[in-house]
Amino acid sequence: MDSYTQQVNKELREWQKAMQRGISVPGRLSRGIQRKINSVIPEKVHAALTTAIKQTTRAVISGAGFTSPPPLFEEYLAVREAKVRERISFYKTTAATEGALTGAGGILLGLADFPLFLTIKMKMLFDIAALYGRNVGDYKERLFILHIFFITFSTQDFRNKLYPIIADWENYSKELPEDINAFDWRNFQQQYRDYLDLAKLLQLMPVIGAAVGAYVNHRLTDKLGQSAMNAYRLRLLKK
Q: pLDDT of 200-230, one tens digit each?
């Protein structure tokens, strides 16, 4: 095993522990704070976020509007992941710029940003999947992309439930219907909506929205990219 693969295995073990750790006291407190914040947010804002997640979920599962390069094969892991990091860096910059522009406009533009930011994140995941040699023409691979998104932005208790699915994806995916039209995507997205991190709601606030939008978009895009790398490493290194 070369030094790069050793480092990858170390990072992967750390990620696996993070995906399976117990719920900490700070985690419970932050969840309580988030519930209080959610309770004072206008219902139309929640409705807009729910609609954005619903539409994005449907688009990803159907593959509508998302393109990616052909799957990358026969590359050393270090070379493959250098390309992955380049894509993550590109999308972090794109997301930060977009977040700053829409965040400066307060609630209305902030709400406009949410579906745009979801699209940026999903496009990055499609690119990463291809760089790890995955064919996103297969809707089951697109479902895996959604699981990466959900495990990255869900609470720890739900993350603990999602991890075994990702860790055993090859077997789990065999139980999925072969026909995409037989998959109940509405029920699927509803299962996850209430567990998503709503930190980006801060971006809707006037004055600080631009700074928060740039910072949060950059941070969350990087977080998602790292999760994706480790999720695909898990599958790749099992072979």
A: 454 444 444 445 556 667 788 899 999 999 9
Q: Which amino acid is at 89?
A: S
Q: Tell me the Cα Rg of the chain.
A: 18
Residues 6+ positions from 10 with CB-CB distance below 8 Å: none
Distances 190 to 99, 148, 195, 220 between C-alpha atoms, Å = 26, 16, 10, 22
The verdict on pTM exceeding 0.70 is yes
| Residue 204 domain boundaries | 3-236
How far apart CA 15 and CA 59 sit, in angstroms, is: 28
Domains: count for the chain: 1
The whole-angstrom separation of Cα 87 and Cα 234 is: 20
Digit-coded pLDDT (tens) for 165-208: 999 999 999 999 988 888 888 778 777 766 665 554 544 444 44
CB atoms within 10 A of CB 218: 19
The answer for residues whose C-beta is within 8 angstroms of residue 52's C-beta and 6 or more apart is 114, 115, 118
Phi, psi for residue 76 in degrees, rounded to 5? -65, 150
